Amino acid sequence: MVLDTPNGFSLDNSGRRIVVDPVTRIEGHMRCEVNVDDEGVIRNAVSTGTMWRGLEVILKGRDPRDAWAFTERICGVCTGTHALTSVRAVEDALGIQIPDNANSIRNMMQLALEIHDHIVHFYHLHALDWVNPINALRADPRATSELQQTVGPNHPLSSPGYFRDVQNRLKKFVESGQLGLFKNGYWDNPAYKLPPEADLMATTHYLEALDLQKEIVKIHTIFGGKNPHPNWLVGGVPCPINVHSTGAVGAINMERLNLVSSIIDKTQEFNRNVYIPDVKAIGGFYRNWLYGGGLSSQACLAYGDIPENPNDFSPEQLHLPRGAIINGNLNEVLDVDPRDPEQVQEFVDHSWYTYGEPGRGLHPWDGVTEAQYELGPNAKGTRTNIEELDEAAKYSWIKAPRWRGHAMEVGPLARYIIGYAQGHEDIKDQVDGLLRDMDLPFDAIFSTLGRTAARALESEYCGRLQRHFFDKLVQNIKNGDETTANIEKWDPSTWPAEAKGVGMTEAPRGALGHWIRIKDGRIENYQCVVPTTWNGSPRDVQGNIGAFEASLMNTPMERPEEPVEILRTLHSFDPCLACSTHVMSPDGDELTEVKVR
Amino acid sequence: MTGKALILGIGNVLWADEGFGVRCVEELARTLSYGPEVQILDGGTQGLYLLPFLEEVDAMVVFDAVDYGLAPGTMKVVEGDEVPAFMGAKKMSLHQTGFQDVIATAQLMGCCPAEIVLIGCQPVELEDYGGGLRPATAERIPDAIAIARDWLAARGHHASAGQTRTDDLADASLRRENYEGNRPSETEACRTGDARFFPAEG
C-alpha cells in the first residue's frame, strides 16, 4: 500500500520488512523497521522507542531545587545538559537572576559537554559506520603517514613509526580475539569505501580522541566539583571563586583557571587539526553517498543556547541560534516561544499513551504521561515479543512533539541550517568553507554526512565560544566580581504559592526543554521534551513521519540483511533514547537481531 | 608494593534495585575507612567518563545489579575475564553494555586494571520509577561490602572501621536515606550539591 504523507514522503510497505532491534552504539533502547523494494531501497520506515522511563512520575512532589540532581541521572551522556536545563526552568519559574560569572561558567560547562559529546560521538559511536578498523590492519604505515600529512599537516603525530605502533597494537587486540568494541560489525560489506590507510588514520584518531576526552571533562570537575555527576545550583554555580588568598578549599583559583585555559587550547587544536580534517577526508570517499537528509531541508527547530548575558534568552543574544524553518523556506526563520501553548505540543495518537481523546496535542506545561500499551491489529507477534509493529496504530514509547503541527529535525545540522539561513557569520563562514573545500553544492548539507559535518564544525565553534567565556570570566574577576550565586530566593518561603517556568538548552543532540510547575514549594508537574523525542518521533494524527523515519527513506542498501546504511543515518543524529523514551524488554539478546521478513 | 584500587558502584538510583551498586559504595564509604590509594566512586550509568578512573588502578571492585536469572536477592561474584561476559549476559539495564564497552576500551588502551571483581546482586524490582531498594536487595549490601573488603585485603588494601571521606558519591538529595525518605528537611541534606558553598550552620 502506498501512502503519501503531508510532509512529502511516499510510504510503501509492500516490500520485505527488515527489523533492527536493538540499534546499537546509542544510549538507550531503540528499534527500527523498514520495508525495502526489490532493489533494496528503503520505501517505508518505522522508528520506535522501546522503553518508558517515568521521569515525570519520579519528580512529582520533590523539591524543585533538587530536580537537577534527579534529571542528571536520566541519562549516561547528557547529564550536565539536563541539570542546566532544570536549574534554568526553576529560575525561570521563580524569577531568579543569576550572576555574570555563573553564566560564563555554565556556558563553559555546557560547551565542554557539547564538544566532548561531539568528539566521542564521531570517533566512538559513529566512525565505525564509515571506518573499517579491521581493514586498517592491511594499511601501509608509510602511506598512512603521507595521507596524514596531506589531510592534517598541522597534526604532529604523523610518522610512519607512529602508525606502525598503532597498527601493531590493534593487531594484538584483534588477534587476542577480544574484538570487543569492534564486534557486531559488517566488515566485508561493500558499503565501506575507505582505503586501508584512511582506515588506519581514522582508527588512530579514535585512540587519540579517547585520551583527549578525559581532558575535556576536567572542566566539569573543576567547575562542578566532581565528574561524573557535576554539581549544579539553582541561582548560580556551586563553586566559589577565590583568586587572591589561599586557604579556601576547593575554590576556583588561578591555577585551576590556567588548567581550564590549557584544556580549551588542546581541544581546539584537536578540532582544527584532526576532527574537521578527518570529516573532510572520510567524507571525500563518500561524497556520492548523500542520502539521509530527511526533514533537514524542510523543517528544523532550535531553541538556541549560550546566552551572552545571564538570563537573557532573546535570540540575538544567543551564540547558538534559535528559530524554526518550515516548508523548506530558508528565507524565513520563524520565532520560537516555548511558552506559547500553540507552538510546542506533544501528540500521542501513535504513542503508547493516552490523553483520553484522539488527535489532541498538549503543551508541556499541561503535559500528561499516562501509559496505554496496545498493539495494532496488523502487528505480528505478542505483546511481550513483537515481531513486527503496526505503524498505523500505536507503536512507540516516544511521544510525537510538533511545532505548530510540523514534525521537526533538531540537532547540530538543524542549528547550522537555521544559523546559515539567519546569516550567522561564524556559521556561514564554516559551512561555505567546508563545501568549497569539498567541492560540494549547498544542498549536499541536507544529508547524513551533512549532519556529521555540522557536528564537527560546531565542535570547533564551541571551542571558540569557550575561549570567549573564559576571557570574560577572568576579566570579570579582575574587575573584582567574584560572585557566583544569587541566593536571595533560596528559601521556599520567598516563593509564590504557584509558579511555572521553562528551561531551554541546546543539548549536543538538539533542542532540550524542561517545563515545570511548582505548587507550595514542591514540583507539581515536570515534563521534559528531549531532542530524541523530536527526532525519534513516531507518526502523528495527520500521518507526518518523524525525522529518523524521514531520513531513512529512499536510501539504497547494499545488503538489506546487514543494516550498515540504516545505522549510519540513525547514528548521525546521535540518538539518545535513555531520556526520550520512557518498561523495557527485560530480556534480550546481546547482539542486534536483524530479521528480514 | 601495593598499587591503587578503585571501588566503583554503577547503576541508576532512580529505578529501584538498579541502584544497588551505587548504594553499596555509599554504605561502604560510611562504614569503612580506606587510605588515599583506594578511590570510592559512584559511577552512575556513565560510560567513557569512567575511563580515567580505571586507568589509574591495578585492582577494581564493581558493585552492580546484574540479571543472572537467579532468585531475587541472590549474590554472585565473578572475576577477571568473566566480568564483561557476565555484564553482557542479559540486557537488563541501560548501562551494562556501556560499562562492558568501558572495560573493552580500557583493554584496547592497555590501561585496564589487572584484577577486576564484579559483586552483583539479582534485583527484585526494577520498574518502580523513583523507588528505592527492595528489602531483599538492601539486605545484601553488608555481604557485598564484606566480600569487597576481603578481596581488597587479600591484595594489600586494608580497611579500618570508620568512614572514607570522598566527594565522589551522589548528591545529597539522591543518597539513599534522603532519596527513599522522599522529602528531606534542609538540616538533613545540603541541597546545594556542594557543601563548600553553603557552609554548615553553627
From TrEMBL, chain A:
<comment type="subunit">
    <text>Heterodimer of a large and a small subunit.</text>
</comment>
<keyword id="KW-0460">Magnesium</keyword>
<feature type="binding site">
    <location>
        <position position="78"/>
    </location>
    <ligand>
        <name>Ni(2+)</name>
    </ligand>
</feature>
<dbReference type="Pfam" id="PF00374">
    <property type="entry name" value="NiFeSe_Hases"/>
</dbReference>
<feature type="binding site">
    <location>
        <position position="579"/>
    </location>
    <ligand>
        <name>Fe cation</name>
    </ligand>
</feature>
<feature type="binding site">
    <location>
        <position position="576"/>
    </location>
    <ligand>
        <name>Ni(2+)</name>
    </ligand>
</feature>
<feature type="binding site">
    <location>
        <position position="56"/>
    </location>
    <ligand>
        <name>Mg(2+)</name>
    </ligand>
</feature>
<dbReference type="InterPro" id="IPR050867">
    <property type="entry name" value="NiFe/NiFeSe_hydrgnase_LSU"/>
</dbReference>
<comment type="similarity">
    <text>Belongs to the [NiFe]/[NiFeSe] hydrogenase large subunit family.</text>
</comment>
<keyword id="KW-0479">Metal-binding</keyword>
<feature type="binding site">
    <location>
        <position position="78"/>
    </location>
    <ligand>
        <name>Fe cation</name>
    </ligand>
</feature>
<dbReference type="InterPro" id="IPR018194">
    <property type="entry name" value="Ni-dep_hyd_lsu_Ni_BS"/>
</dbReference>
<dbReference type="InterPro" id="IPR001501">
    <property type="entry name" value="Ni-dep_hyd_lsu"/>
</dbReference>
<dbReference type="GO" id="GO:0016151">
    <property type="term" value="F:nickel cation binding"/>
</dbReference>
<feature type="binding site">
    <location>
        <position position="582"/>
    </location>
    <ligand>
        <name>Mg(2+)</name>
    </ligand>
</feature>
<dbReference type="GO" id="GO:0033748">
    <property type="term" value="F:hydrogenase (acceptor) activity"/>
</dbReference>
<dbReference type="GO" id="GO:0008901">
    <property type="term" value="F:ferredoxin hydrogenase activity"/>
</dbReference>
<dbReference type="InterPro" id="IPR029014">
    <property type="entry name" value="NiFe-Hase_large"/>
</dbReference>
<keyword id="KW-0533">Nickel</keyword>
<protein>
    <recommendedName>
        <fullName>Uptake hydrogenase large subunit</fullName>
        <ecNumber>1.12.99.6</ecNumber>
    </recommendedName>
</protein>
<keyword id="KW-0560">Oxidoreductase</keyword>
<dbReference type="GO" id="GO:0005886">
    <property type="term" value="C:plasma membrane"/>
</dbReference>
From TrEMBL, chain B:
<keyword id="KW-0064">Aspartyl protease</keyword>
<dbReference type="GO" id="GO:0046872">
    <property type="term" value="F:metal ion binding"/>
</dbReference>
<dbReference type="Pfam" id="PF01750">
    <property type="entry name" value="HycI"/>
</dbReference>
<protein>
    <recommendedName>
        <fullName>Hydrogenase expression/formation protein HupD</fullName>
    </recommendedName>
</protein>
<dbReference type="GO" id="GO:0004190">
    <property type="term" value="F:aspartic-type endopeptidase activity"/>
</dbReference>
<comment type="similarity">
    <text>Belongs to the peptidase A31 family.</text>
</comment>
<dbReference type="InterPro" id="IPR000671">
    <property type="entry name" value="Peptidase_A31"/>
</dbReference>
<dbReference type="GO" id="GO:0016485">
    <property type="term" value="P:protein processing"/>
</dbReference>
<keyword id="KW-0645">Protease</keyword>
<comment type="function">
    <text>Not known. Could be involved in the processing of hydrogenase.</text>
</comment>
<keyword id="KW-0378">Hydrolase</keyword>
<dbReference type="InterPro" id="IPR004419">
    <property type="entry name" value="Pept_A31_hyd_express"/>
</dbReference>
<feature type="binding site">
    <location>
        <position position="18"/>
    </location>
    <ligand>
        <name>Ni(2+)</name>
    </ligand>
</feature>
<dbReference type="GO" id="GO:0008047">
    <property type="term" value="F:enzyme activator activity"/>
</dbReference>
<keyword id="KW-0533">Nickel</keyword>
<dbReference type="InterPro" id="IPR023430">
    <property type="entry name" value="Pept_HybD-like_dom_sf"/>
</dbReference>
<keyword id="KW-0479">Metal-binding</keyword>
<feature type="binding site">
    <location>
        <position position="95"/>
    </location>
    <ligand>
        <name>Ni(2+)</name>
    </ligand>
</feature>
<feature type="binding site">
    <location>
        <position position="64"/>
    </location>
    <ligand>
        <name>Ni(2+)</name>
    </ligand>
</feature>
